[in-house]
Amino acid sequence: MRIKAMVIRILNQLRHDKRTLALIIFAPLLLLTMIYFILDSSTMDLTVGIVNAPQQYMDNLYENNIKTVRCTESEAMQMMEHKEIIAAVEMTGGKLYIKLDGGNSTKAETALASMEAAKKNMIPSSERYDLKTDVKYVYGASDLSTFDNFGSLLIGFIVFFFTFLISGISFLQERTTGTLEKLLSTPIKRWEIVTGYVLGFGVVSVIQAAIITFFVIYILDIMMVGSLWLVLLITLLSAMVALAFGILMSTAATSEFQMIQFIPIIVVPQVFFTGLFDLSPEWTLVGKFMPLYYVADALDKVMIRGSGFGSILPDVLILLSLTILCMAINTILLKRYRRI
Description:
Layout: H1 2-16, H2 18-40, E1 46-52, H3 55-63, E2 66-70, H4 73-81, E3 87-92, E4 95-102, H5 105-120, E5 132-140, H6 146-176, H7 179-184, H8 190-219, H9 228-250, H10 256-261, H11 263-271, H12 281-287, H13 291-303, H14 309-333
């Protein structure tokens, strides 16, 4: 009987907690629906820049589902830097010279296999089909592991995930225990409270970001081409955005359980927009509204492509803007908790 009474009490509690009930039922459905549409529209569109090659070779590439574009060598390097092409091809002097973007080993291997097949299918009378292939990796390497491919993306996600969760729950506890209301009854201003929380957790985030970065680079030996300081900067920005965002989402939660349930709605969907999947243009546009998109983009540029600060500056500015925006919204929302 006591167990029965306990079960009835819990069910009644959930029945009156409409927000928790909605999260339990609809959050998984929302996540599954998003996964369905993203994976259903996922495509691997590969484009190769043709510096010098006969038309038949280009036609053979097209038959292997590879798009081609005529360009000069300098134009090809620029397009490769911006991920517009996967490789640049030049057929001259009895050799097939391929400059390859190996930042994503799956794409690189697919493109390389298609280029080899296109070469072998050429008619001998129009061009030699026994050309030797010379492959040079502009980014990445031939022995790039799966973890090297996606490890840089996971660094940003892990930092974002734990910082979002811990900051949100901590701020929620401040609110539910009455500490926040007591603070608001003092002369301290709302923006000072928000800034204090963000900077306070920010100190811990600096330590967290440093530990994770050093562990992944020096212990797990992930590929690292660019500056370590830039990686630390990006992971710190990821933590700061997560801090401000976690505090913001805590205002919509009434319990730690609800805060945890925001993860499949707020955090998990962002993983699909970090480069793990080839998305359609529509879904790529959606990804540009998510913080982890810019974190992953910046980490990929530094760790895999060896880019400098100028290349990641747009990502840095957007992440800073998102942090400031969330802090401003948090400051406004604190009005509802002032009781005097």
